[in-house]
Structures are given as structure tokens and as C-alpha cells.
Amino acid sequence: MSIASNATTAAGSSAAPRGGPSRRTLAGALLLAGLVALALALVLLLGRAHHAPTSARSVTAATPAVATPSSGAGAHRAGGGGPAAASAKNAGHGAVAAHGAGRAGAGGATGGAVAGAGARASVAQVRDPEESRSFPLPASTRHSAASTPSVAAEAAVAPGAASDAQIRRELREEERAKAQERAALAQAVTAGSGPEGGSSVGGSGAIPIPTNVPEVVQRVIAGGNAIADFPYIWGGGHGSFVDHGYDCSGSVSYALAAGGLLSTPLVSGDLASWGQPGPGRWVTIYANAGHTFMYVDGVWFDTAGRSGPYASRWITATPPLAGYAVRHPPGL
Length: 332
Fold this sequence. Notes:
By secondary structure, the protein is of the alpha+beta class.
């Protein structure tokens, strides 16, 4: 072959690759595509980890601190012993059962949390500092059992009671009628003369039921009348509304239940936080850890200050009010 032929062949072989990409170019493109695919895979993995469901994570919740109710609620009446004494009296007390079972009588050592059918034990019941003024009876003395609060309310509620709608339409006459009823009550009520200087109402111990107040208030008064002359028994009325005697919170609970305001008896410590704060228009409850009473349409309902063991719980003298939480049923 000639020199010219060799030159032509060499030129042809060197010019042939120019028609497509070089191997280096293809290798670089493949490497770049691999890096892009890897980056996309990492992005997808990170996105899934970020949106993982909460249920798969480990969550630790802090346990909230539980507040312990105070054993006292302010100063007690003179001779009551105050919060410290009330707390000391509560130490070692046992549960109070229904119908007087387990009671140790006046000055006994029974007490503590009240348990039984429908009783609530959220607040421990402590000994009433006013118990001596309520003429407690020994456990051997039995009084006839009360009827249920609803029966007492139905039996004694004033006939022809005005509805709430009628009451609202007669607001202008209300105050005048109330003044007339209070005047009649003042004539019917006579103060007692017991050894403790009690001020129980006289007569049968019941008070007139006004007709110009809401029906629920009439029923509360009827409930108070039904047990007005029952003896004081500490823990009475807590195992069941139907009992032979009632303490201060058992008495208030019974009257409120007659009005349909309670379904289970409450101890005085419970009543100190029950309902709404402040005085009510018709019913105002005063309560602390050891004692409770209430003011119903202008008349006091209290186990303390009675003129004797079977005297009325409706009293004419205003009891000391310092050291008590003031509450009222919603809307009343």
C-alpha cells in the first residue's frame, strides 16, 4: 500500500468518533443521573420521617399534682375549737353507717368520712363544733324515721303554688307580699327559752310556706318542716335521707333534696364548695369543715341554737356568720 493510502486510512479512523459522544461524556452523565436519584431518595426518606404519625412516638405525660382539701374553713364559733381543733377531732374517726349503726352517741369517737348508699366521700366529715348546742341524743334513743324528701315536699307544699312564669309577671307585688308574710311569720314565731338560750320557733316547729316564691323554694321549706323537730344525731341523714335523726349537714341536705336540688347527702365540707358563691335571693348556705346552716326566704334553718332536743331547726336569732363559706343554689 502506498503512503497516500495509509494517510487516508489514518485520517478516516481518527475522524470516525466525532459522530457521537465520547465514553467520558457518557460516564459523566451516568454519574450525574445517579447522584440526582440518590438525592431524591434522601429527600423522600426525610419527608416520611418528618410526617411520621404521633402514635408511633414515645410520649411521656407529667402527672398533675393533686391538691389536698383543707381540713378547716376559717374560724368557728366561740367554743367550737377552730380549724386546729376540728382537724384533731377528725383524727381516728371511723365511717358513719346508715340509720345510726356504728354511732357512739354524744361525745363518741365515731366520725370521719361518711359512707353509705348515695353518700359522697370527697370531703371528710369532721365533728361539729356546735354539736353541744344541737342537743345530741345517745344511740339508744330512737326517733321515728322520716319520709323521703320528695314525699315530704309533695305532702307539705302549699296548694295553688304559683309557677315561675307567674312569679316573673308579679314582681311589682312580690316585695309587698313578702313583707306581709314576714309580718305574719313574726307573729306566729316565738323564741324558745332553753338552757342554752336557744331561739327555736314555737308552735309545731314548722313555718308557713309562702305562695309567692318559686315552687322549688316552697319544697325546700316543706322539707325543713318535715324534720324540724327530729333529734340531732351526728352523722344522721348521710347513709340515707330516710333516718331517725339528722346532724347539721344531714338536715340541710334533706331540705335541699326536698327541693330537687340534691340527689345524695353532702357533708358540710362539700357544701362549702357546692352551688355558686355568694348569697342567693331565696336560699343562702353557710358552711365550713365542721358546721353548716342556711337562710331560706328570711328564716334561719340551723341545728345549733335550738331550745331543746326536739325543738325546731327553724330559729329566730341570726347565728354568727364569720368563718363560713357563703354559697347558694344556682338560680336561687
